[in-house]
Amino acid sequence: MVEIWSDVTCPFCYISKRKFEAALKQFNAISNIEVVWKSFELAPNLQAVEGKSIYQHLAEHGMPIEQAKSASLQLAETAKHSGLVFDFDKTIPANSFKAHCLSHLAKRYGLQDKAEEILLKAYFTDGENLNDIQTLVQLGEKIGLDAVEVKFALENEVYKNEVQQDILEASQSKIKSVPSYVFNNKHVLTGVQESAVYLEHLEKSFNEWKKDNRSITTEIEEGPTCMPGGLC
After folding, report:
1. Residue 150, class by beta-carbon neighbours within 10 Å (0-12 exposed, 13-18 middle, 19+ buried)?
2. What is the pTM of this model?
3. Helix (H) or strand (E) run with residue 35 in it
4. Domains of the chain: residue spans and CATH
5. Alpha carbon of 209 to those of 3, 48, 77, 137: distances in Å?
6. Pairing, β 2-6 against β 35-39
7. Are 26 and 195 in contact, with CB atoms under 8 Å apart?
8. Strand order in the sheet with 35-39
9. Which of 20, 95, 19 is nearest to 57 (CA)?
10. Tell me: the pLDDT tens digits for 179-211?
11. Is-cis flag, bond preceding 179, omega within 30?
């Protein structure tokens, strides 16, 4: 199992997702790997303000606007190497809690990876407001979720406990940043890594799993026996 602690407002989480996917394509035993996305809130207290740019948001946390624009441009260039388009001019600073709830709902239907993908694209490429329920309902529909169920789950915080449990688990596991990849509860990779590094850990973890779970083959040598009913 690979557990990925991530936040949909984290640019490095999107870039690492592409690098990890490239590693999975090279991994021969991909059908034996279960990938689970885990919630991590980078800004749990963030209150979205209409019209505020991501540069203004960063400036409020001590980074001058011009520096924020320069850093964002560099990130966008880095993302291009992974085939991603980052348009920070469109990015709407938003609390990611509702997006995490949508991810947990999608997990119920085996659609969690699709949810993470569409949420990351919505935030970094399309400039969607991930704190808006109607926006999230539309994104959920696009990956095959029922609009009524999505709306109900988000309005009633049905998956609040699941999100909080992930965050608690991260704290207990001393995961303090994202992205963080945990392989079979043993090996942890933090930050963006090259695909070769992810592949190395996939293979290492899978080989360890096979060793720990190797099947016991029963060999039978036949001789004279008696069967039920007195047949000998």
Report:
1. buried
2. 0.88
3. strand 35-39
4. 2-207 (3.40.30.10)
5. 15, 44, 38, 38
6. parallel
7. yes
8. 35-39, 2-6, 180-183, 187-190
9. 95
10. 999 999 888 999 999 999 999 999 998 888 888
11. yes
